Amino acid sequence: MQDIYGVQVPSDRLLPCPYPFAAPTASGFGALFADAHARSESIYNGDGSWGHGFVHDESSARWRALFARPEDFVDWPTVRDTARRLAAYAWALDVEPDPVYRERLIAGVDWLLKQQLSDGSFPWWISRSGMANTDHLYYKNGYAGIGLLEAYRHFPEPRILEAVRRAADWTAAWRVSPNNNYNSLACWILTAYYRHDPQPRYLEAAVQKTVEGVLPGQLANGGWAGHNSWVYYQGIIVAGLAMLVAVLPHNHPRQAEIRACLIRAVNNLIIRQDGEGRLLATFDPQERAEAERHRIGYEKAPAFLADGHALLGLLWLDDLLGYEVRPLIFGLLHAYAERTRQEDRELAPQESHGEHEMVLGYAWRWLSRQERR
Asked: pTM, whole model, 2 decimals?
């Protein structure tokens, strides 16, 4: 496992991608999406939600212990499981007008809107409170905002946009999180909604959360130490930075430093890649040692991982900004395809929590468009 902790990456240019991977086929990813959909159907609850909550999830024991008493635990389906699938089905419908995908999208919108709290935020159903009034809801709002806005493209109903506005208002008003990737997830919904309603307060809230809560702590290698050294969170941060840079005016006083942060963060992903297309799961030796001891949740990751969050962030980077990292993307696409095939054989459908559907849906659409060019 390579040691990149002390590596310094440039902030003014992208590094060359280390391996000359070729593009996979769109049809291959269409087949993978169909397989993921079939597995997802096995846990569909019939009401626009999928699976169950956190009571049976070993990796969430720490969250339950922190935020809920045992008598308050709930086993309700989670916002992220539906929100990710909303985005997935919306992107899949851009390629193939499947009536079942359309039905799931409509039902998922109805279910998700019912979950929204009175203050506009979307809950984390660990306990009956939904972890209300905490920055943990940046995570849920980020995914809910993307899922609903992608559904809105197919079903432009005012209630959908109104729900996203309320969530964006809550996100804009809530304080900066001490967790770097949470602030980037806040940027997901703030910048996505800003494209529909370009009021400066949404853009400036995204800038504030980035300047105060993402830029601080970035290492010379383009990553962040500790918890955020894991490649999943690096991918979330890259996605949020790309979304912000894409809407930030060139003359904005913070534009240069935010763009430099993004370039360093992308370079961090570039130096993580191995010859199989996978990415170094974490470069922090303390995090790796902790993972070897506990082996639960995201800490079960091997030394190298074909990570969906990083893949999604890189695909958005290409679509929004056109940064030339396609060999990196192609390698990760190949590795992610192999990962999903393996996990289809080994893991229960619940364990993806909609991640595979979301990533495969976007990758399928992205590759389809590439092949039509």
From this structure: 0.95
User: Using CA of residue 202, residue 192, residue 243, residue 261, what is the dihedral sign?
Assistant: positive
- DSSP output for 29-68: HHHHHHHHHHHHHTTB-SSS-BS--STT-GGGHHHHHHH-
How many folded domains does the chain comprise?
1
- Angle 211-164-235 from CA coordinates, rounded to 5°: 45
Residue 179 falls inside a structural domain:
yes
d(CA 189, CA 344): 31
Q: In a structure prediction context, what are the per-residue pLDDT tens digits for the chain, which is 373 residues long? A: 578 999 999 999 999 999 999 999 999 999 999 999 999 999 999 999 999 876 555 556 666 666 667 667 777 899 999 999 999 999 999 999 999 999 999 999 999 999 999 999 999 887 777 778 889 999 999 999 999 999 999 999 999 999 999 999 999 999 999 999 999 999 999 999 999 999 999 999 999 999 999 999 999 999 999 999 999 999 999 999 999 999 999 999 999 999 999 999 999 999 999 999 999 999 999 988 887 776 555 556 688 999 999 999 999 999 999 999 999 999 999 999 999 998 877 677 777 789 999 999 999 999 999 999 8
Give the domain range for residue 289: 26-372
